[in-house]
Amino acid sequence: MKIYAWNVNGIRAVHNKKLFLPFIEKHKPDILGLGETKAKQDQSEVDLPDYKEFWNSAEKPGYSGTAIFSKVEPLEVEHGLPKSIIDKYKVTGDIYGDPNKEGRVIAAEYDKFFYVVVYTPNAKDDLSRVPLRHKHWDPAFLAYAKQLEKKKPVVFSGDLNVAHTEDDLARPKENDGKKGFTKEEREGFQNFLDGGFVDTFRMFTKGNGYYSWWTHWANARARNIGWRIDYILVSKSLKSKVKSAQIHADVMGSDHCPVSIELDI
User: Fold this and answer.
1) Residues 27-72: tens digit of each pLDDT
2) Which of 94, 110, 122, 179 has its CA 20 to 30 A from that of 215?
3) In this structure, what DSSP letter does residue 224 have?
4) What is the reported pTM?
5) Which residues does the annotation mark as catalytic?
6) Is 242 left (phi over 0), alpha (psi -120 to 50) or beta?
7) DSSP-assigned beta bridge partners for residue 32
8) Element (DSSP H or E) covering residue 222
9) Are 181 and 169 in contact (CB under 8 A)?
10) To 5 degrees, how large is the angle CA 211–CA 176–CA 146?
11) With contact defined as beta carbons under 8 Å apart, do 172 and 181 qualify?
12) 149 backbone φψ class: left, alpha, beta (φ>0; ψ -120 to 50)
């Protein structure tokens, strides 16, 4: 089973560039998790007869949002974090809005696992959303993943808006302490690993130079001055089932590229 995740930075934009359908035709994902769809389902002109579509769009037009396109019919789909977890971890709004109304999480249950797409809030240039990330969002999302895991193994993917280690961005020294590379955000990611989830890409590939996002400035993508902030993590019990994990830096259309795993399940 091929599972892909892609922050498309606007599904309508990628489709209008005539780059979305060629990606589907070439890679043929069995399950595709999308981040930053920036649209509601009825605004998308993408038509994929082989896929069932499940959307969690932001209330704010043209903003955020997640979706799952699946060849396999899920048993059930859940939109957003459960209220019990939102309340426990006090995941509430701030000056930028309410992350619970931004379509940031969607989960599909399959026979043998859950698949969850997450689009983690950005810390902002002034780091004003780091407290939301560190004290509320990251702990809440980990608790949600662990809650699902009590029933069956979990695969979760998406733009987590953090580079975990110095190998995960081209210029770690210049970016130390800046958004996406603060100790709080990195700790949040480490907590996923300490909680029993596995960073699939690092099962197969070590070292730097492997990135999934590049700024539009200074020809960064062509020069590969990037960040690895898009991930697929799996429950430890699925580790032996992961046969490959890749970053598809050649796929254009967004400032992010897709990441994927092949799961023998």
Assistant:
1) 999 999 999 999 999 999 999 999 999 999 999 999 999 999 999 9
2) 94
3) T
4) 0.97
5) 119, 159
6) beta
7) 4, 69
8) helix 220-223
9) yes
10) 65
11) yes
12) alpha
Q: How far apart are CA 7 and CA 97, in angstroms?
A: 20
Which residues in the chain belong to E strands, given as ranges?
2-7, 31-35, 52-56, 66-70, 76-79, 105-109, 114-119, 154-159, 197-199, 230-235, 242-247, 259-263
Phi, then psi, of 168 in degrees rounded to 5: -95, 10
Strands 114-119, 105-109: pairing kind: antiparallel
Q: Yes or no: say if 259 and 230 are a contact pair by the CB < 8 Å rule.
A: yes
What type of residue sits at position 84? S
Residue 77 lies in domain: 2-263
Q: Calculate the average pLDDT of the chain.
A: 97
Place of tokens 């046969």: 243
Identify which of 34, 87, 27 has the alpha carbon closest to the alpha carbon of residue 250.
Answer: 27
Q: Distance between terminal CA atoms of the chain?
A: 7
DSSP state of 121: P
pLDDT tens for 108-158 read 999 999 999 999 999 999 999 999 999 999 999 999 999 999 999 999 999
Q: For the chain, how many structural domains are there in total?
A: 1
